[in-house]
Amino acid sequence: MMRIVTQARIDQLTRDEATADERARQVTAAANEAFGRHVRELYAVTGRAERAESAAAEVGEILAHAVDELVVAQEELLLRDIEIRRLREELEGEPLEGRTLTVLLHYGEAHTIYGSREDAYADTATHGVPAGTAWVPAGERPDRETQWRLMPFIYDAGCNGFRRAFMPAPEPVGGGS
């Protein structure tokens, strides 16, 4: 089969080809631009994801450290609660009048409560604090400036509780003598 093509048809096909080529260039340029945007977005999203992973790991470490500190604090509170309960039971079993307690202070903060000064010396000696060498008598320096100090308390029926066995001498108001 043979077909005769006219010059007008060839001119029309040439124009259609040029239009199709121009359209293909435009579509290719738009596709390249869209691909570039997608690649930039991918890099940006990947960067945010990596930063988020890093932040999550850092927060995880902080949280793990906080949980460890919480566990230690809870154990310490439990031990103190047990000691307080033991001392309460001990106190409830005997007449209170004249009973004494000894509180071990570490830089002015209550550290441990003992039934007697001897118990305090015995316990602290097991922790490496030699009896008599690391102790500072009451009133010699302020409690906050003293590493270890034993503070005796005696039961006072008048106030239905314990008070310091040795009360500090009252200071005159305004520093006058």
Would you mind describing this structure in some detail?
A 4-stranded antiparallel β-sheet has the order 2-1-3-4. 55% of the residues lie in helices and 15% in strands. The model has no long low-confidence stretch (mean pLDDT 82). The radius of gyration is 43 Å and the shape is rod-shaped. By secondary structure, it is an alpha+beta fold. The longest helix is centred in the first third of the chain and has 87 residues, at 7-93.
Write the layout of secondary structure elements.
Blueprint (H helix, E strand, L loop, with lengths): L6 H87 L6 E7 L2 E6 L2 H10 L21 E9 L4 E4 L13
Antiparallel strand pairs: 1-2, 1-3, 3-4
Question: What attributes characterize this protein structure?
Answer:
177 residues, 55% helix, four-stranded antiparallel sheet
